[in-house]
């Protein structure tokens, strides 16, 4: 297990290096950020002073090595627009994003797992078919479409829910549902398939033959064994929420989180904020995937043998 953990850490480091490099060079393709920051009416001397102040006067490779050094030293520079440390800006955004992701995670698991279990138990009945039809429809609707429809219905027409902000519980309802819609459908399908595979096993028939209540058989024996398969799916979903879902949903609802910050910094060419924001998201996604992968390998002896751990 130690050897597998070390190999995972090496892969994480290589992946982060590639992501950091791609983001750095990709941001430089959009032009000089000083032109965007200064606007019209600034003298050429002032422009050159600002370029030198932000370290943009060197070659692309000089800037690249300087950026790698700043990452290792923990100094991520100043925002071009807000003129304050990037780490402070990101720290302000972490809380709202984590609250939204946590709420989405709780809502998704509480809805999709019971629906998946019910779809497996009643797979040959109308209830099971209805659940799967709803799951397929939910999987086909992107988060931004669901968000726009909810804004039109519940905010514009009915005036029930607010659109912008995160001050009250009602502000969380539409963003949470928009982020979880596709994931509820996906996890419901995976839960159903995993439970169908478990329900046909001999140990389930043995548990029923011992006279155990059906609820205990399903939850203790069925769901417990199916959770090994669901573990990796849950990890991918959490990573998806962090990497993609929050960016789209936070932008639509003007949620003051990291996702909205990434979109705003990309539009305004605020390189330091964009680079550190992408790096933060990448670290979170890689850590979650690594933790799930290691837990999956620890839970299943076959994977440990295959990986030589």
General description of the model:
- The protein has 309 residues and is mostly helical.
- Helix content is 79%, strand content 0%.
- The chain has 13 helices and no strands.
- The protein has helices spanning 2-27, 33-38, 44-53, 60-73, 86-121, 126-140, 143-157, 170-199, 202-209, 214-252, 258-267, 271-299, 301-307.
- Helix 1 (2-27) crosses helix 4 (60-73), helix 1 runs antiparallel to helix 12 (271-299) and helix 7 (143-157) crosses helix 10 (214-252).
- The model has no long low-confidence stretch (mean pLDDT 79).
What are the SSEs and their pairings?
Layout: H1 2-27, H2 33-38, H3 44-53, H4 60-73, H5 86-121, H6 126-140, H7 143-157, H8 170-199, H9 202-209, H10 214-252, H11 258-267, H12 271-299, H13 301-307
Helix pairs in contact: 1-4, 1-12, 5-6, 5-8, 5-10, 5-12, 6-8, 7-8, 7-10, 8-10, 9-10, 10-11, 10-12, 11-12, 12-13
What keywords describe this structure?
309 residues, mainly alpha, 79% helix
Using the CA coordinates, give the radius of gyration.
24 Å
Number of helices: 13
> How much helicity do the residues have?
over 70%
Q: How confident is the prediction overall: mean pLDDT?
A: 79
Beta-strand portion reads under 5%
Q: What does the largest sheet look like?
A: none
In one word, what is the shape? elongated
Low-confidence stretches: none
Distance between the termini: 5 Å
| Global structural class | mainly alpha
**What sequence of helices (H) and strands (E) makes up the elements?**
HHHHHHHHHHHHH
Give the total of beta strands: 0
Which quaternary structure do these chains form?
Answer: single chain
């Amino acid at each position: 297990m130690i050897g597998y953990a070390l190999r995972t850490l090496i892969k994480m480091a290589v992946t982060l290096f590639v992501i950091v490099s791609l983001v750095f060079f990709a941001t430089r393709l959009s032009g000089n950020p000083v032109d965007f920051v200064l606007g019209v009416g600034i003298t050429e001397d002032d422009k050159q002073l600002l370029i030198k102040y932000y370290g943009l006067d060197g070659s692309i490779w000089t800037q690249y090595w300087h950026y790698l050094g700043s990452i290792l030293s923990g100094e991520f520079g100043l925002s071009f627009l807000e003129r304050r440390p990037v780490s402070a800006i990101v720290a302000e955004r972490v809380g709202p994003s984590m609250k939204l992701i946590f709420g989405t995670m709780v809502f998704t698991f509480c809805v999709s797992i019971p629906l998946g279990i019910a779809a497996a138990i009643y797979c040959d009945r109308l209830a099971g078919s209805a659940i799967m039809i709803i799951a397929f429809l939910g999987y086909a609707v992107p988060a931004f479409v669901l968000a726009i429809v909810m804004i039109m219905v519940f905010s514009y027409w009915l005036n029930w829910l607010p659109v912008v902000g995160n001050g009250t519980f009602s502000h969380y309802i539409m963003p949470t549902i928009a982020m979880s819609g596709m994931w509820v459908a996906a996890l419901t399908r995976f839960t159903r398939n995993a439970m169908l595979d478990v329900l046909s096993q001999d140990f389930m028939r043995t548990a029923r033959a011992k006279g155990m209540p059906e609820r205990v058989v399903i939850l203790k024996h069925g769901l417990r064994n199916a959770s090994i398969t669901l573990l990796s799916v849950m990890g991918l979903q959490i990573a998806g929420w962090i990497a993609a879902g929050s960016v789209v949903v936070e932008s639509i609802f003007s949620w003051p989180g990291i996702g909205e910050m990434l979109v705003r910094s990309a539009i305004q060419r605020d390189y330091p904020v964009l680079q550190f924001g992408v790096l933060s998201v990448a670290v979170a996604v890689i850590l979650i995937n690594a933790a799930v992968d290691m837990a999956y390998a620890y839970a299943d002896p076959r994977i440990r043998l295959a990986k030589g751990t």
